[in-house]
Amino acid sequence: MGKTLFEKIWDSHTVVEKSTGPSLIYIDRHLVHEVTSPQAFDGLRMNNRKVRRPDLTIATMDHNVPTNDRSLPILDQTSAVQIQTLEKNCNDFGIKLFDINSPNQGIVHVIGPQLGITLPGTTIVCGDSHTSTHGAFGALALGIGTSEVEHVLASQTLWLEKPKPFEIRIEGKRKNPYAVTAKDIVLSIIKNIGTGGGTGTVVEYRGQGITDLSMEQRMTICNMSIEAGARAGLIAPDEKTFDYLRDRQYTPKNFDSLVEYWKENLKTDNDAKFEKQFTLQIDDIAPQVSWGTNPGMTCDVTDSVPSPDDFAKGDVNQKKGAEKALDYMDLKSGTPITDIKIDRVFIGSCTNARLEDLIEASKVVKDQKISPNVRAMVVPGSQMVKQQAEEMGLDKIFTDANFEWREAGCSMCLGMNPDILAPGERCASTSNRNFEGRQGTGGRTHLVSPVMAAAAAIEGHFVDVRELDLS
Amino acid sequence: MEPFKPVESIVTPLDKVNVDTDQIVPKQFLKLVQKTGFGKFLFYNWRYDENENEKDDFVLNDSKFDGSQILVAGDNFGCGSSREHAVWALQDYGFAVIIAPSFADIFFSNCFKNGILPISLEQKIVEKLQLDVNSMKIDLENQNIITSSETIPFEIDPHKKRILLEGLDDIAQTLQFEKKISEFEKNSKVPSVL
Q: Residues of B with CB below 8 A from A226's CB?
């Protein structure tokens, strides 16, 4: 029987396999950031261990860096300590660090691909659940905890239970790809399969709806695999993948011979078997807006806020969850989504802060002003994205419309830095999680695409972005 | 890691599904660079109001559950962020066993690295345990939950069970395979980053 792409990568990285239980898997790339690594480095020190492969390990600081003027000192002392700790750890253990002043600094999942560190067919880990992003390049990319970060630093391997392969087919063609984006596709998937729908699996996204997407859009899809509970999500590499990676700063010198190898090996065999399957037809899907406190609580922009009964479909616990979510979000069932007024807009995060996202959002914003009741910010995913956007004049388009234009980082996706919502504030956000308090204690998050976020900033409420005239 | 010791305690019922790690320990507490002292931040936004007073309606603030070592929660417990701080907070607070119909993968794996036993059971058994006010025993060796009225068996991967019972250092175990890791590296086609 044939193998899936995931199984091929798994098999080619198995160092030790036993008859039962986990296998020891080799890790090709380890990405490190300031929040989930300090305790791991401490563990190494306590046991007199070294980093086995500093040459396969890259670090940056993204989660709690301020996004205002980089020449100013970091006011939050605990953040400053965490950032200094990463500098010291990288220095002590010989790890390459893109620090706060590096032109390569940025969200770890944005810089990996951008620098050509992310490669097809590799295994990639990071102490961050959105590591799944790198799967867009046909890599097996896993989010891990701090103990596992320490394990990889020490051994360059991980003990892993083999997940089950899950095929998600995206079929059809969007009528208005400008308004119905990769974000809307992945939110639709999660709405359908639920936040636990992918637990214990590695998703392979397939079908025309996927191959039609650019690399940056594919990253948006793979990024949110974890929001469906999947261990990872991946997409078979094709010419778009190779073109994206050619000539990046850290693209390997033998790239062309690697491409030959990848073309030959990195695809699911025709007779391979998936243990789970889901198909989404995207011809007619609408722009999506989340209404609740997990990414599965999402509906079409043309819908109204659902009743807990309709959402739960008979499940008592889901119904209770929905009631609690509506209470937290201060929303009433039956309210049209387009009537929901917002206070804040956040365009950023590892889901949607790459150059294409900013270009698409800027088309909506051009020659407009944001609603006087809204405060809006753009936080580019990396300093390189920021620079490229500025070369195109996008910063001017956003600032002319009264958006704030910031330095790179995770920012208000999780609000570990000063960028947070005030209690009760409602935000249209291009990030990935609408959990209670995620963007600030008492803050209310609606997950949307960059185009929807931009339109909501202008209008002060959600709109059906398919109706915008952007000619 | 300390070997897992037998647990005897009443359960703390957390009647919620999809409890994400942002709720277990909110982001403002992830800036610490050590593993200890996270218990006071456990379920922070559910436990305390904006003036840091305890909220009466949250189960952890009910004194009858003081000292409980067993948390019984709803489906998909520990979803979202990979932060191991969530496990450190549960452990530091005093929980040794988490029971739920299902767990998110990364959280589940993080539990075993810190000596916490996560047990998946059928929804209706979980619901029954949530209502049980009596003390119960968790016998990992024999894989049983012993309540005042019955014995409920549970499944656990033998490898994970051994790690917990013996309190094994994962990395020391792995480094015994050093020769195999080196051999793998010799044959790898993947170039260094730098």
A: 80
The contacts of residue A285 (CB under 8 Å, 6+ apart) are: A174, A180, A184, A185, A188, A300
Do the domain assignments include residue B192?
no
* Contact with chain B for residue A116, Cβ under 8 A: no
Q: pTM above 0.95?
A: yes
Q: Are B174 and A155 an interchain contact pair (Cβ–Cβ within 8 Å)?
A: yes
8 A C-beta contact, residue A33 and residue A110: no
Q: Report the residue of B47, B81, B92, B177 to disrupt the A interface, i.e. the one with the largest count of A CBs within 10 Å.
A: B81
ipTM for the complex?
0.96
Predicted confidence (pLDDT) per residue in B56-98, tens digit = 999 999 999 999 999 999 999 999 999 999 999 999 999 999 9
B81-94 core/surface letters (b: 16 or more CB in 10 A; e: else): bbbbbbbbbbbbbb
Q: Please give the Cα distance from B120 to B15 (Å, whole number).
A: 15
**Rounded to an integer, what distance in angstroms lies between the CA atom of residue A105 and that of residue A150?**
23
Backbone conformation region of residue A21, classed left if phi is above 0, alpha if psi is from -120 to 50, else beta: left
Domain that holds residue B36: 7-187
**Mean pLDDT over residues A262-272, rounded?**
97
Asked if B170 reaches chain A (Cβ–Cβ under 8 Å), the answer is yes
Given a contact cutoff of 8 angstroms between Cβ atoms, the answer to whether A39 and B34 are in contact is yes
| Chain centre to alpha carbon of residue A26 | 24
**Domain-located, residue B48:** yes
- Residue B194 in domain: no
CA A363, distance to chain mean position in Å, is: 22
Number of domains comprising chain B: 1
What distance, in Å, lies between the first and last C-alpha atoms of chain B? 35
A15 touches chain B (CB under 8 A): yes
Chain B residues in contact with A152 (beta carbon < 8 A): none
Considering the domain boundaries, does residue B110 fall inside one?
A: yes
Looking up residue B27, the CATH number of its domain turns out to be 3.20.19.10
- The answer to whether the Cβ–Cβ distance between A441 and B45 falls below 8 Å is yes
| Residue A141: strand pairing partners | A124
Q: Which of B17, B82, B84 sits opposite A317 (nearest CB)?
A: B17
CB-CB contact of A50 with A150 (8 Å): no
Q: How far is CA A184 from CA A224, A285, A465, B107, in A?
A: 11, 8, 12, 27
d(CA A34, CA A59): 8
- A424: number of Cβ within 10 Å: 11
